[in-house]
Amino acid sequence: MRGLKRKVLFKQKRSSMTRRRYLWAYTFMLPQIIVFICLSIYPIIMSYVYSFFDWDGLGPLNDFVGFTNYKELFKTTAFWNAFGNSVIYALGFTVISVGAGFILALVLNEPAFKGTVFYRTLYFLPVVTTTAIVGIIMHNMFGTQGFVNQLLHTFHLIDKPISWLLSPTLAMLLLIFVGSWKHTGITMIYWLTGLQMIPRDLYEAAQIDGAGYWKTLRYITIPLLVPVGVTILLLTLTSSMHVFDLVKTLTNGDPYYSTETLELYIYRYAFASVGGAARTGFAAAAGVLLGLFTFLIAAILGLVGWIVNRRINKKRGELI
Amino acid sequence: MKKLLKVIISLFIVGVLLGGCQENSKVVESVDGRTTITMWNRISGLDDFLPDLISSFEDENPNIKVELTNLPVEGQEAQFQAAVQANELPDIFTLGGGFTVPDMVEAEQIRDLNELFPEEIQNHFVTGSFEQGQTMIGDKIYAFPIFSSAHNTFMLYYNKDLLENLGIEQKVPRTWSELIEISKEVYEKSEGKSYGLLIGMKAGWLISDATLQMARSITPETGMNWKTGEYDYATQGLIETVKFYKTMLDENAMSIQSLELGAQDVYTQFANGHSAFMIAGNYVGEQLYDRGLENFGVASLPTKNSDGEPFGERKVQENISVSRYTEHWPEVKKFINYLVDNMYSYIAQRAISEPAKKIEFVKDAEPRIVQYNDIVKIMQDTMVLPPNPAEVNLETIKVSREYGQMAPKEGLDTLITGYLSGQIKDLESALQEFTNSHNAALNKAIEQSAGKVTKEDYIFPNWIPGKDFTEENY
């Protein structure tokens, strides 16, 4: 009887201690929760709310229009043009920055390679530069009378200047190139983290079995990097859908909207100073669609990641 | 322990709430006991002299401190929008960010300034300064103009030094063919180092308005045709003007850089001798001096034929308003009176534009640059007062707001640069589509007024294109 009482008392004491711990935990989490609600949840909810109103960004929301903004968006060629440009940019950006980042990581992960710290810093440098400044500098460099044309002319590679920013294809390629150049450093760091997680004894065992560099790459490195790769792909693709500052400063959507991305399209309608008053409700609807599309990509890649992880775990189970 | 926890949570909540309250309350007095009034300026010409002007005002009024913020060009829309949403516009501001006086009145953000501008003071201002829907609504004045309504006149600047160095006779080109001829000579004699013409086409407002000015020398009804109350951009005048740019580009008479550069970059290129001619606004004179070019001339925009007259429509575009929520109206009044007495001298001296105040009421109006009088003359000759539907029916102000929201966000500049960069093949169709969408937006806005406004309010049969439409014409 006494033992039972002691047990109950102990349980009660433990549960009150647990409750207290939880309370403390929530107290410390409270500021973060408030910030999260105010700065993330509230704007997301409000962008959905605005998208159902014909609103110019001033005064109260009193002109409810239902799905009119969405219907108009689906019928607008400019929206689909911006959507297409965003997808092209995202694909080009992802392929180059993930691919180049992977190659750089492989090289810089080689123990025999000298000066790895220097080169890692060098390739990471563009990541910490301000995107808007990079855009302005590149705009000047690739202008008709810019540094690049002058250089090409000096080496007699061109007779007349190339209009990098006036050709839709060249302008988009330039945008993708500059964007990927700026982002490759961060994907390189992600890949390096993944590479350094692979146990070295696996390589040693493979070498003893006579496997060369390409075989270890094919049968050890790449398969073990797949889960990390899916995450890198997810992060790169979703961030590339939100390109704004680089486009605004480098091409501003020119020539004739051929590099206008969805974020720039939204900006043009949300804060219009040219071409009449702003259409914040309409811009919010475009923002909601962009958000949903990005979420869809993230969900698909998340699913791919889950399937890959499941297969790997299954294989590991079979091996054990 | 529980008590301690409750105390901590309560303190945190109170802190958050107080923090929130503090955000909305304005600091009314500075530490030294002076009343602080706030001002936002978004006009680049004003940031040069406003600090001096404020400093002399503060010397005369030691109990008032004016806190000036110069807004960057980019991002001011968002700044204005956020301030309006929170009812936190500064006490005084130069209106911008895509918002007009009617927008601000509708949003209940600005107060009327009638007591500061009785008829006697209004008479000190040039014609077109207090216009319905621009600075006034009904009998209330909601803003006062900084520059005359001829501000934003576009003209041809020419670099005398460059022409002299190249040994080219300095005959000012009056027609397009003359401009092409001289420009080709510049390109050839400079061995491709300098071009004839440069225009900062990345600045949409510049290329749109300058092109319309030139187009009207061929088809005066280009833009809003006040005889029919319909927009018309697919005119012969506009098509020929855009094609003239194309010819200039194709014949190396205009630098391809025109399609890549904004206004400020072009001023620098022009001052550095990269082009002999430049199309720019009336406010560029002193900026060229600042960039080291003093020996330049100005002329009206060239036209297709020598008998054509380019013209633009007068409109008050830059003005000053006062927040409805100002807590320092007496101090703001003092500062505005000071601005009205002194600001226009700075504008004339620094050749920023023609002041909104008549020159005979502006003290010390001696300009610092010799070209100023020529610039003002071109402004006065080029800009005409168009009919104003709000003078006939005040409800048209609301329709104009609605139209502004429904009109396409694509500007005329985009079509021009789209054609010049080869993206638009059929210019005429593109301009026709542009015209149709503007007319559709206007008609829809009129329709939504539920009969308060009719198409008739936009029709002025006695309008003579290129001539002032004065009070007697209504």
Detail the topology: elements first, then pairings.
The complex is a heterodimer of chains A (320) and B (474).
Chain A: H1 2-50, H2 68-75, H3 77-108, H4 116-128, H5 131-141, H6 147-154, H7 168-196, H8 200-208, H9 213-240, H10 245-250, H11 262-270, H12 280-319
Chain B: H1 2-24, E1 35-41, H2 50-60, E2 64-70, H3 76-85, E3 92-94, H4 101-106, H5 119-122, E4 136-137, E5 140-141, E6 144-145, E7 154-159, H6 160-165, H7 176-189, E8 195-199, H8 204-215, E9 223-225, E10 230-232, H9 236-250, H10 263-271, E11 275-281, H11 285-290, E12 296-299, E13 312-313, E14 319-322, H12 329-349, H13 372-382, E15 383-384, H14 389-392, H15 396-406, H16 412-420, H17 427-448
Parallel strand pairs in B: 1-2, 1-3, 8-11, 13-15
Antiparallel strand pairs in B: 3-14, 4-5, 6-14, 7-11, 7-12, 9-10
Question: Main attributes?
Answer:
heterodimer; A: 320 residues; mainly alpha; 12 helices; flat; B: 474 residues; alpha/beta; five-stranded mixed sheet; four-stranded mixed sheet; 41% helix; globular
Strand segment tally of chain A: 0
Number of helices of chain B: 17
Radius of gyration of chain B: 25 Å
Q: What is the overall number of helices of chain A?
A: 12
Low-confidence stretches of chain B: 14-28
Helix/strand order of chain A: HHHHHHHHHHHH
Oligomer: heterodimer
Termini gap of chain B: 81 Å
Distance between the termini of chain A: 49 Å
Portion in helices of chain B: 40-55%
Derived from helix and strand composition plus strand pairing, the structural class of chain B reads alpha/beta
Q: What features would you describe in this structure?
A:
The complex is a heterodimer of chains A (320) and B (474). Helix content of chain A is 76%, strand content 0%. Chain A has twelve helices and no strands. The radius of gyration of chain A is 26 Å and the shape is flat. The mean pLDDT of chain A is 89. Chain B has 474 residues and is of the alpha/beta class. Chain B has helices at 2-24, 50-60, 76-85, 101-106, 119-122, 160-165, 176-189, 204-215, 236-250, 263-271, 285-290, 329-349, 372-382, 389-392, 396-406, 412-420, 427-448; strands at 35-41, 64-70, 92-94, 136-137, 140-141, 144-145, 154-159, 195-199, 223-225, 230-232, 275-281, 296-299, 312-313, 319-322, 383-384. In chain B, strand 1 (35-41), helix 2 and strand 2 (64-70) form a beta-alpha-beta unit. The radius of gyration of chain B is 25 Å and the shape is globular. The model of chain B is unreliable at 14-28 (pLDDT under 50). The A-B interface holds A 20, 23-24, 27, 30-31, 34, 54, 56-59, 78, 139, 143-145, 161, 163, 165-166, 168, 252, 254-258, 268-269, 271-280 and B 1, 5, 8-9, 12, 16, 76-78, 81, 84-85, 96-99, 103-104, 106-109, 202, 204-205, 255-257, 259-261, 401, 403-411, 413-414, 417-418, 421-424.
